[in-house]
Every structure is written in structure tokens, then in C-alpha cells.
From TrEMBL:
This is Spermidine/putrescine import ATP-binding protein PotA. Belongs to the ABC transporter superfamily. Spermidine/putrescine importer (TC 3.A.1.11.1) family. Keywords: ATP-binding, Cell membrane, Membrane, Nucleotide-binding, Translocase, Transport. Its EC number is 7.6.2.11. GO terms for molecular function: ABC-type polyamine transporter activity; ATP binding; ATP hydrolysis activity. GO terms for cellular component: ATP-binding cassette (ABC) transporter complex. The chain holds residues 1 to 244 of 361 of the full protein. The keyword Cytoplasm does not apply. The complex is composed of two ATP-binding proteins (PotA), two transmembrane proteins (PotB and PotC) and a solute-binding protein (PotD). Part of the ABC transporter complex PotABCD involved in spermidine/putrescine import. Responsible for energy coupling to the transport system. It comes from the Bacteria. It catalyses: ATP + H2O + polyamine-[polyamine-binding protein]Side 1 = ADP + phosphate + polyamineSide 2 + [polyamine-binding protein]Side 1. Residues 10-240 form the ABC transporter domain.
Length: 244
């Protein structure tokens, strides 16, 4: 994997989204620094997934702009944004083997067979699934599947990775193990990462900074220790202090 290209910052301005007459995001601003691991943390329904889908290009905002590395992307389709994604509803193909699942984004980009083989092998190493290329996905454990999804998200060397509750289906032990793996992968590859969770402990463990969301707004954006020590609103204090 190449780490030489610098990961672009993301600058989000005035993003608004309504579903019918219901406002979900109203004029949201957010800056994600180059190579940063930023987490959107908030209760169910606070607009985290909607914001991620807008960033990915799957949902069109009603207003606002998204600048990635100096380029306006708001009207670009998802495949032209060079973003890797691990979404809950962006499932693997269970009847296909690990190799073909991971190679899928390369096929979409018409990568040659030789380069595809080379890249898939490298990324299998990275997520520690060496030797499992021929295994059908429906014969893997939850943690292994999660790593296949991750491998597929990074195989084309995206400079930005979006992850929506990627560990929510795993049991506690495996989840904690994968948190460490994800974090160390991020440290090695340095992609600008936007991560979504409703689990405050997970957010605190993994993030450079956390944006606490409530009802479609960012209540506070800070480093985990600052949020914990100096919550700016009662909502943030309650949400960060709460144990789950
Ligand atoms: P979160 O990820 O924080 O749980 P979401 O972004 O999924 O929040 O949802 C925010 C709000 O937008 C919720 O009230 C949800 O019901 C609504 N919503 C999300 N997607 C749609 C949609 N496609 N159509 C209508 N309402 C939606």
C-alpha cells in the first residue's frame, strides 16, 4: 500500500438535508484534517449516517458544499470521489470467495489481472487474512468478514475512508480486538478517516477528535480527553459520561 500520497483534508460547509419536510441536518460545518481519525458520535437518529452518505455521494444534500483536498465534490458520483467505505448496508457477496470480494472495486476500475492479484495479496497481509483468498465469505467468522470488508475498502488505496458502525455486529472481545487493529491500520496508512459510532467508549479509544452530534447538529468537536474533561453542553456531558 502506498503511504506516500498525502491524505486530503475534508471541509464541509452548510450541509442541509431534509427528508420530506423533516430536517435531518441543518447547516452543518465540519473540517477533518489531513490523515485525521475523526468520529461522529451521537444517539440513534442524530444524523450521523446521513452525513456519511452525503460525504460518500449516495445521498444528495439540499444545500452546502464538500471540499476534498481543494476540490468541490458535491456533484460528483461516489465512484469518482476516491473514498473507501465500510457501511452496514454495503454487504459482502456471501457466495463469492474472499479474493473476488476484495477485488470487486478494482474490477470496477478496470485494473489489470496482474495488478489486482498483487494488490489483493498485499491487502490480505495487511488485515492478516493470509491464505484465506479462496474461502467463501459465508464460511468466515464475523471478525474475518469484517476484515474482508475493510480490505475491500482500502484495496484501491483511497485517501479517505468512511466507516459506519463497522464493528457493531461483533461480540465484545472481537470488537475490542478490531478497534486496536483498525487504529493501527490507520496509523500505518494514514488515510483521512470519518468513523461513525453511537458507542462513546469506542469513540474515545479510537479517535483523534470526536464530533458529538445531537439532532442534526454538532454540539462539540474536540479531542476525547477535552470532551471528557470540559463538556460544553449538558447533552455532551451526559452522553460522554454515560457508561454503556
Ligand atoms: P444516525 O445515523 O445518527 O442514527 P440517521 O442519519 O440514520 O441517524 O437518521 C437521521 C434521521 O433521518 C432519522 O430521524 C431518520 O429516521 C431520518 N432518515 C434517515 N434516512 C432517511 C430516509 N431515507 N428517508 C426518511 N428519513 C430518513
Amino acid at each position: 500500500m502506498s503511504t506516500a500520497r498525502s491524505a486530503p483534508p475534508i471541509n464541509i460547509r452548510g450541509i442541509a438535508k431534509r427528508f420530506g419536510s423533516v430536517p435531518v441536518l441543518s447547516g452543518l460545518d465540519l473540517d477533518v484534517a489531513s490523515g485525521e481519525f475523526l468520529t461522529l458520535l451521537g444517539p440513534s437518529g442524530s444524523g450521523k449516517t446521513t452525513l456519511l452518505m452525503i460525504l460518500a455521494g449516495f445521498v444528495r444534500a439540499n444545500a452546502g458544499s464538500i471540499d476534498i483536498g481543494g476540490e468541490e465534490v458535491i456533484t460528483k458520483p461516489p465512484h469518482k470521489r476516491n473514498i473507501g467505505m465500510v457501511f452496514q448496508n454495503y454487504a459482502l457477496f456471501p457466495h463469492m470467495n474472499v479474493f473476488h470480494n476484495i477485488a470487486f472495486p478494482l474490477k470496477q476500475r478496470r485494473t489489470s489481472a496482474a495488478e489486482t492479484a498483487e494488490r489483493v495479496e498485499k491487502v490480505l497481509d495487511l488485515v492478516q487474512l493470509q491464505g484465506l483468498a479462496d474461502r467463501r465469505v459465508d464460511q468466515l467468522s464475523g471478525g474475518q468478514r469484517q476484515r474482508v470488508a475493510l480490505a475491500r475498502a482500502i484495496v484501491f488505496e483511497p485517501r479517505i475512508v468512511l466507516m459506519d458502525e463497522p464493528l457493531s455486529a461483533l461480540d465484545k472481545g472481537l470488537r475490542e480486538h478490531m478497534q486496536i487493529e483498525l487504529r493501527s491500520l490507520h496509523r500505518r496508512l494514514g488515510m483521512t478517516t470519518v468513523y461513525v459510532t453511537h458507542d462513546q467508549r469506542e469513540a474515545i479509544t479510537m479517535s483523534d477528535r470526536i464530533a458529538v452530534m445531537n439532532k442534526g447538529r454538532i454540539e462539540q468537536l474536540d479531542r476525547p480527553e477535552t470532551l471528557y474533561a470540559r463538556p460544553r453542553t449538558r447533552f455532551v456531558a451526559g452522553f460522554i459520561g454515560e457508561s454503556n
